[in-house]
Amino acid sequence: CLEIKGSTRLMAIIGDPIAQAKTPATINEIFSARGADIACVPLQVPAQELETIWAGLKRMPNLVGFGITLPHKQTALQLCDSLDPLVERVGAVNVVRRERDGSFRGYQFDGKGFVRGLQANNIEILHRDALIIGAGGAAVAIAFALAEAGAKSITISNRTTAKAQLIVDAVNADFGRTIARVGSPQPEPNELVINATSLGLNDDDALPLDPDLLRPGMTVAEVIAQPETTRLLSAAGARRVEVHSGIHMIRGQVGLIADHMCEIWD
Ligand code: NDP
What we know:
Blueprint lengths: L8 E7 L7 H12 L3 E7 L5 H9 L4 E6 L13 E2 L1 H6 L4 E4 L5 E4 L2 H11 L8 E5 L3 H12 L4 E5 L3 H15 L4 E3 L9 E4 L23 E4 L8 H8 L3 E3 L2 H19 L1
Parallel strand pairs: 1-2, 1-3, 4-6, 7-8, 7-10, 8-9, 10-11, 11-12
Antiparallel strand pairs: 3-5, 5-6
Helix pairs in contact: 1-8, 4-5, 4-8, 5-6
Bound molecules: NADPH dihydro-nicotinamide-adenine-dinucleotide phosphate.
């Protein structure tokens, strides 16, 4: 377990509420396994206090940075000294790191964490068609990350079509070719199907697509991590479709975030 010493550096996870956060414990396990002298703690930061607390955190010389969760992912953009280009594309920041020059730079690992989670479970992405349902913060991050990871095509389907179109335009502009398009929630054979909506958080939520359209050869991946097996994953599993829980996206992100902090501060 993590040994706290006088020399131990601090990383915080800021959000409100924060008591439910599992990330600090998992990040500490990784720091500990690596022998990194960094400890991660949850900090409850109400929205109206963000600016004041942020300014205070920056003044602490032994703070290496912080992870950002709800409700600060968008508002934090304005408070960073600089932003990784991906943060601007996705419009949300989820990690802020103290750089070697002391400035605080914002990064985005949602999409990369999702891809890392798939890779850790040997789920194919390269040259594969993907269908993303949803067009919020998680969907945009995943769309960029799948394009980066070599997906053949990305279809985005959302209740509000205009939001799907915005992501499609942004991805195609960024990659300089037509990789993404707006479509319907009707998976093609062997497609990687991703629920990136918030449907599934509650037991009585509607399913994001008709499960009778699912066939073996497809993969259904979730962003929802709690419950670990959503109704969509149960329905897909019952149809002999490969399933992938949202928990892997969190694990993927946490690993990347720990690596990112250790890159400078270990
Ligand atoms: P947003 O609020 O940005 O987007 C929500 C999306 O869900 C939108 O596309 C919205 O459609 C859609 N949606 C919501 N309700 C309905 C409904 N009743 N019917 C159809 N579509 C609906 O949220 P985020 O993208 O930030 O997060 C989405 C989910 O991803 C959350 O549950 C979050 O917990 C999870 N998440 C998981 C992570 C992980 O590491 N596992 C990381 C980040 C997020 P519309 O645009 O039409 O409103």
